[in-house]
Amino acid sequence: MAQHLNAATLLEFAHAAQQHPRATEPCECTRTPLEGWQSQPLSLDETLFNEIGTLMREDDPEPSFSEYLPDKTTYWSTDAPIAPLYFPYNRCGVWQCSLCGRLYLRYVEGGGYFVDRRIRAVSAELIADVPLPE
Questions:
Q1: Which of 18, 57, 103, 133 is the most exposed place for a label (fewest CB within 10 A)?
Q2: β-strand partners of 54
Q3: Segments making up each domain of the chain, as ranges
């Protein structure tokens, strides 16, 4: 299993990714806007990505389905916080583009009759270290 990243570690990786020399340039991974959750585009070249960690805790076999969506944000909002202890972040792998260094969160959304691979770009400004309610 990949290295577990908590909110503080994810924030460190996000800041480092934003300092990558090519982080502000167009890249293969930025053809489709991914600031909010999206179904993973079929055109996205998965070989560009390296998994650098996971937000899934090894000691938590059934992560919470609680969502953290303050200020009328929704799951699909581009400004929704990235709260690692909350759904869907607590089921995500953290991936980095090998060309530009940008970070992405990826997970598989599953329902009764479908499976949808979802992806969202990581923005350091949106990472929120929020505890789950007791």
A1: 133
A2: 4, 93
A3: 7-126
- Per-residue pLDDT tens over the stretch 21-76: 999 999 999 999 999 999 999 999 999 999 999 999 888 778 899 999 999 999 99
pLDDT of the residue at 1: 64
Among candidate residues 64, 65, 63, 83, the one with its CA nearest the CA of residue 73: 83
> Which positions ≥6 away from 114 have C-beta within 8 Å?
none
Distant-in-sequence, close-in-space partners of 16: CB < 8 Å, separation ≥ 6: 101
For range 6-27, the mean pLDDT:
95
The 93-97 sheet, strands edge to edge: 38-39, 115-121, 103-110, 93-97, 49-54
Measured in residues, the chain has a length of 134
